[in-house]
């Protein structure tokens, strides 16, 4: 347990080193930048609620990825799966049942969004199982297809006639909008859903038959084969579930924040990719992922803030994320050797 | 005869194991010298020392009478020693020329390719074999790749060629070509060391042979003065004796547990690895499979346990056809499988003992209710097995990877035997284990036999096979060369069947 916290600490050290590099080119002192990030993300009620808002999609995507990473299935497609979830929700809200009452419409949007995300993740699953194609490449490429698909919809068939020519879909009816906490952007139904799912996933991973299979396959595919485990079934399930969770994140973004479908970069600022880092940094432990998503939500909020307050380019935060990703990948390699510390119950 | 190379008193230890025990080895100029022995006899270790991959703990090496220190392959190459490994060290995407060029010193600065291409062409014309210098290596067959390795060695002006089991990957025709080439090299005054366990090859091509057994040298002898039986005896020794077997009755009743008929299975490379094999194992019988590894034993076991597709033929367990029905279903018929690679396949090193113990039964009651696992039941069960099978471990929560080899094997046996199997497939169950663990595992297997289990025991340890088996089937080159009742089995007979005499 201690070791895992130490790893997280080390990762943040890497962030500080990155900040120092930024100082060299922009002469913004790292302590000032960090204080600015920390204050904007965690230093005020507004900052905290924004951080919480951004942590929701990270949480859902990261949880979904953790299942497939734990079984050594490398799904990099959470971004696309999230967007397909957003498309599914929009379709329900605007075209299938726009006049349905809230208590029917919202669950239907979540359900269909999860199915759309799951189906998108099934493409790499089928190609992997049937044709032995590398799921990293397939899921990554599908992200670009999903991005362009969303852009096509909002510039084309779903473009609203009432939005002054902006690439927006029509605004969702009120019954398709998620409630928020007071005047913040925290769409709490999605947050509660994510927290419940984190607990469920934790139970699945460490207490259930499926979780046992996932961990056996992830740690030794040869032993799994020898014991006659149905590996294909597990590959399908982890991708389907992971895609479904990312799909839920997409529903939350359009139904909770934007209330419409927008261009892909407007819906997701790379949540699906950041979630890869979140999942690894959370050591693929669902409960830890919840915590790490909150920290990364803060990083995203801080990234926005330093653009305004310090005049740093918007890509600064991508740079920091990149640094963390490298660090996490290094950890990932050593993980296989030290994963013995991870046992059921996280003892 | 001019002595080119002398190795004196070479000793190499790996931990407690002495792989080479005061071995003397001599090589004359222009001879083909066979280095013969079972797997694990120390042949490859000795040659790795000569090639600088290992440093010996004791002993000296002389070349042309002068003492040399070989600390790395680089030193060896400088001294004119080249080694062709079993798995070729070539760069797949580079052409033949580029592979040969790699590591050459005195090439022209401009257009080095032309010079090397000319050398390759001269070489191949002179010795009359075909190779296109401009194709990438991945397009070549195993035999051609080997030729590239030999050309490489030749271009480096090597005087000593070490070939490690060079014919395992080759077709009969390619083998014939290789031997022709080796004879040419001999005429050039080059010395060849041929590491092998195939007697035919030694008889065919070698001038002299040195036989190793259990890390010790048995002797060096001119090939004219021996026949295959002599060599087999030297290889396997006569110190293996039949143990008194009164305590375990060899009478078994006639129920057939495993019935294999005309079984053909392909290897990963798509070549037939098991060819039309048929045999039965009865209740309470141990059938031993002897053979040098790589003769189809692994594929046979994988086919029986459903890990490899059966191409032709059938497998029946207790009269029920289980050909190609999948591993899970076969295991559920009551098949215990003790795999060859216990660390990679038999356990999940990162997972706890209890989670390893339920690997076969995690989805069954009382461990699972269909969705969740009941860890308190699992924990109790694991504790019981750990004490019953005398596994030394702190508790059932520690990762399996922290156990010693013997304890890991006992863990696997505990898991596999606790399902009350009707058939046990044991592959090299005691390989690399100390005497105590070996004895415990033998006792467990014999007890299961008394309880009526049918056991298929694959091993390279002839003593183990003689001690445990009721009958021994010898596999060679994918076929069973004979099934011998233990009462009538002699170590010489099995030994010579193993090497394909």
Write up this protein.
The complex is a heterodimer of chains A (347) and B (501). With 347 residues, chain A is mainly alpha-helical. Chain A has a domain at 59-272. Helices cover 76% and strands 0% of the residues of chain A. Chain A has 14 helices and no strands. The longest helix of chain A has 30 residues, at 102-131. Chain A is globular. Chain A starts with a helix and ends in a 9-residue tail after the last helix. The model of chain A is unreliable at 333-347 (pLDDT under 50). Chain B has 17 helices and 20 strands. The model of chain B is unreliable at 239-252 (pLDDT under 50). In chain B, strand 7, helix 6 (172-187) and strand 8 form a beta-alpha-beta unit. Chain B has 501 residues and is of the alpha/beta class. The radius of gyration of chain B is 26 Å and the shape is elongated. Chain B folds into 3 domains: 3-236, P-loop containing nucleotide triphosphate hydrolases (Rossmann fold, 3-Layer(aba) Sandwich), CATH 3.40.50; 252-334 and 421-501, Rossmann fold (3-Layer(aba) Sandwich); 348-419, no CATH class. The longest helix of chain B has 16 residues, at 172-187. The interface between A and B is medium-sized, with 25 and 37 residues.
């Amino acid at each position: 347990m201690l070791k895992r916290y130490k790893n997280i600490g080390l990762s943040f050290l890497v962030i500080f080193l990155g900040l120092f590099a930024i100082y060299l080119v922009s002469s913004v002192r790292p302590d000032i930048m960090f204080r600015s990030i920390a204050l904007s993300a965690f230093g005020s009620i507004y900052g905290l609620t924004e951080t919480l808002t951004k942590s929701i999609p990270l949480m859902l995507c990261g949880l979904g990825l953790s299942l497939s990473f734990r079984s050594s299935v490398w799904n990099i497609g959470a971004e696309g799966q999230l967007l397909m979830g957003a498309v599914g929700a929009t379709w329900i809200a605007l075209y299938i049942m726009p006049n349905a009452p809230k208590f029917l419409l919202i669950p239907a949007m979540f359900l269909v969004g999860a199915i759309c995300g799951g189906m998108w993740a099934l493409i790499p699953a089928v190609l992997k199982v049937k044709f032995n194609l590398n799921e990293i490449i397939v899921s990554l490429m599908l992200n670009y297809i999903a991005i362009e698909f969303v852009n096509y919809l909002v510039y084309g068939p779903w473009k609203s006639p009432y939005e002054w020519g902006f690439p927006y879909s029509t605004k969702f009816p009120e019954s398709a909008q998620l409630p928020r906490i007071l005047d913040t952007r925290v769409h709490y139904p999605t947050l509660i859903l994510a927290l419940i799912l984190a607990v469920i996933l934790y139970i699945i991973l460490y207490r259930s038959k499926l979780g046992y299979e996932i961990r056996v396959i992830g740690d030794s595919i040869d032993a799994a084969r020898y014991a006659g485990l149905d590996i294909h079934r597990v590959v399908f399930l982890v991708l389907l579930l992971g895609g479904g969770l990312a799909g839920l994140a997409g529903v939350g973004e359009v139904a909770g924040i934007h209330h419409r479908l927008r261009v892909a970069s407007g819906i997701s600022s790379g949540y699906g990719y950041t979630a890869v880092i979140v999942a690894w940094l959370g050591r693929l432990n669902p409960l830890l992922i919840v915590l790490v998503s909150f920290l990364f939500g803060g990083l995203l909020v801080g990234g926005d803030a330093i653009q305004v307050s310090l005049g740093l380019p918007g890509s600064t935060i991508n740079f920091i994320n990149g640094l963390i990703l490298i660090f996490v990948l290094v950890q990932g390699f050593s993980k296989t050797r030290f994963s013995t510390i991870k046992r059921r119950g996280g003892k | 005869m001019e002595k080119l190379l002398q190795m004196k008193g070479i000793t190499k230890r790996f931990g407690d194991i002495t792989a080479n025990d005061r071995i003397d080895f001599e090589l004359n100029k222009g001879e083909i010298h066979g280095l013969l022995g079972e797997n694990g006899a120390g042949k490859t270790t000795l040659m790795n020392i000569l090639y600088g991959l290992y440093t010996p703990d004791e002993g000296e090496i002389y070349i042309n009478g002068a003492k040399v220190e070989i600390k790395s392959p680089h030193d060896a190459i400088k001294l004119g020693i080249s080694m062709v490994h079993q798995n070729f060290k070539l760069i797949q995407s580079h052409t033949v020329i580029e592979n040969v060029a790699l590591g050459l010193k005195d090439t022209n600065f401009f257009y080095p390719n032309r010079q090397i291409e000319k050398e390759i062409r001269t070489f191949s014309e002179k010795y009359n074999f075909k190779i296109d210098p401009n194709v990438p290596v991945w397009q070549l067959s195993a035999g051609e790749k080997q030729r590239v390795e030999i050309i490489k060695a030749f271009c480096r002006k090597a005087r000593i060629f070490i070939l490690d089991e060079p014919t395992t990957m080759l077709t009969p025709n390619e083998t014939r070509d290789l031997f022709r080439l080796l004879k040419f090299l001999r005429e050039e005054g080059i010395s060849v060391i041929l590491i092998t366990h195939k007697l035919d090859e030694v008889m065919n091509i070698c001038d002299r042979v040195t036989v190793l057994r259990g890390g010790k040298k048995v002797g060096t002898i001119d090939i004219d003065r021996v026949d295959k039986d002599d060599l087999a005896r030297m290889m396997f020794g006569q110190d293996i004796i039949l143990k008194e077997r009164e305590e375990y009755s060899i009478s078994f009743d006639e129920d057939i547990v495993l019935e294999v008929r005309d079984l053909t299975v392909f290897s990963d490379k798509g070549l037939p690895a098991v060819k039309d094999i048929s045999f039965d194992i009865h209740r309470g019988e141990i059938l031993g499979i002897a053979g040098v590894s790589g003769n189809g034993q692994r594929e046979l076991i994988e086919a029986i346990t459903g890990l490899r597709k059966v191409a032709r033929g059938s497998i029946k367990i207790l009269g029920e056809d289980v050909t190609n029905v999948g591993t899970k279903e076969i295991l559920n018929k009551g098949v215990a499988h003790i795999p060859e690679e216990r660390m990679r396949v038999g356990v999940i090193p990162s997972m706890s003992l209890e989670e390893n113990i339920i690997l076969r039964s995690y989805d069954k009651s009382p461990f699972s209710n269909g969705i969740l696992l009941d860890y308190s039941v699992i924990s109790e069960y694991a504790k019981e097995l750990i004490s019953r099978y005398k596994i030394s471990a702190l508790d059932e929560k520690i990762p399996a990877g922290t156990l010693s080899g013997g304890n890991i094997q006992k863990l696997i046996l505990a898991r596999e035997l606790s399902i009350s199997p009707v058939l046990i497939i044991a592959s090299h169950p005691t390989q690399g284990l100390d005497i105590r663990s070996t004895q415990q595992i033998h006792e467990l297997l014999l007890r299961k036999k008394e309880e009526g289990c049918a056991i298929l025991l694959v091993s390279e340890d002839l003593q183990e096979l003689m001690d445990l088996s009721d009958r021994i089937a010898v596999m060679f080159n994918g076929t069973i060369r004979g099934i011998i009742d233990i009462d009538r089995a002699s170590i010489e007979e099995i030994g010579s069947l193993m090497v394909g005499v």
